[in-house]
Amino acid sequence: MQSEKPSPLASKWVLIAFGLVAVGLVALQAGSTLGGDLRGNDDMMRMQQVRDLLSGERGWYDVSQRRLLTPEGGEMHWSRLPDLFIAAIIFLLQPLIGTRMAEGVAATLWPMMQLGWILAMVAICLKRLGATLSGQMAGMFFLATSFALFNLLPGRVDHHGLGLALTLTGFAALLSPIRNARSAFIGGACVPVMLSVAIENLPAAAFLIAGFSIAWIVRGGIEAGRLRIFGATLVVAALLTYVFDAPGAQGVRAVCDAYGQSHFVALLVGGAGLFVIATAAPSADTWRLRLALITVAGAVALATFIAINSSCLGNPYAGVLDDVRTGWLSGVGEARNAAAVFVDDATQAVFYFGFGLAGVIAALVCLLRAPDGLRLARSFLLAFCLLGFAVSLWQLRAAMMSHAFAAIAGGLLTGFVFHHWRENRGGHAALVLVLVVLLASPAGWRLPGLLLPETKDETHTADYDCTSTAALAQVAAAPSMVVFTPIDLGAPLIYHTPHYAMAAPYHRNVHALARTLNIYTGPVSRAREKMSRSGATHLLYCPGLNEMAAYAERAPNGFAAALESGNLPNWLVPTTSEDNRTGDPVLYSIVFDRN
């Protein structure tokens, strides 16, 4: 375990081949995506947003969904940047292969491009951390078998993959041993773009800013030029993303769940502060003076952030109504905390959090064994591993970042142990290698799920399909209508059909979510009246939907319970007879002149 030299330049072709094989194997899962089926609600809504953009129905700065008929007007908070890449692929291919096939190809190519990008960044980061070739390959393999892969599969076109790619690109720039203008420019550009893509990237963006600042505090004058360019790039990139990314500079953007005015101004002030410090005092005499200067710049930036919108320091879901929080948000998979994940499925929780914790330990071991020139770089790795793991304990969505950095740390450690085994051979070295591979890889943390009995609820195991192209084909063939759906069927209805939905799982539309919860858990006698006030003319029902089962369990005498038991009111009339029905969803007309 003595050699910690980076792999030779010639090894890049081995890594490229390894990455291409990994991308190719993942691409084999593209069958259903090419047919029009995407992975989840956000992916379907993202593709519909792209359609609206290409058709001209919605401009660049308008990301509201016109077929989501909520009291809030279908308000969304999404960036247009992911749309740009998807729309470009569709625009280029649709004259050749048709719109639907072009969408399927785009929904396959875009995640594959991000996967290749991320694997490349993992390899670069590992090289700059002093990994051997075997360590680089191990890290790439660990990434490709971790939870991070879920957001890089064909059909995953939402923003999560792009956010991770930008995070790792910024991290690779931070680790650059050359410390040139290019690394400063790349790092400075990644930070505002990360925030614009999704505000969930805020912790990683803050750590990148802190990383470039700490590098100057520790190294002094040799980092001054890079810090100066990093600060200037922050200012310019923050302005460009604020003006040109949706929802754009439409007055005061006093929002906390997206890249808003408070984030924008804080980046301007912070970036300007770093530029001024690196220009006026590039070789401040002591690290204490440099720390004091950076602290002042950070405090001023934080003060402006608080002065503009202090509420952004609190819970990003603070505006969600209490009944929506308990009835919907608590059941959103990626928004669960560690305790909820362990209650739902302990073996999956071991995988999510065990591998993240293993990454922290691997990063710590590598830091303790670091030569002088790599101590700061490996300190940054440990910091990001700790950040990802800590945030994942609060919200599972951060497990993607946690696993990505754990893959880097695990690959780094595995490479050293593999080299030690090659040099020494013997049973002891082999045993150490096996143990490290088991504990530092995602596969090792999946073993409990294979060896232990299932712990998740198995009460609703019927194999129903209500969200695919085939399942909704008959519903899609009907003339345009306004449909009342469960929350989780709103996005599939909008994506697969020409119809209008009354609710979908997006937290800005809290009144629509509250209305849906109220109707499904309320009495049958009031359901029709409340639906009539919403403007719905039809109801879409899916047997076996977990959401409906949860409503029925919560309110045994409610409307959802009646639907689940088949005790239908006479004012719900199936639009297609049971003999002629295809697929699992059932579309009912709401008849308003029946008792």
UniProtKB/TrEMBL annotation:
Lineage, opening ranks: Bacteria, Pseudomonadati, Pseudomonadota, Alphaproteobacteria, Hyphomonadales
TM ranges: 13-36, 84-102, 108-126, 133-153, 159-176, 205-222, 227-244, 264-284, 291-308, 349-368, 380-396, 402-421, 428-445
Keyword Protein biosynthesis: no
Key word Transmembrane helix present: yes
UniProt keyword list: Membrane, Transmembrane, Transmembrane helix
Name used for this protein in its record: AcrB/AcrD/AcrF family protein
Source species, domain of life: Bacteria
Taxonomic source organism: Henriciella marina
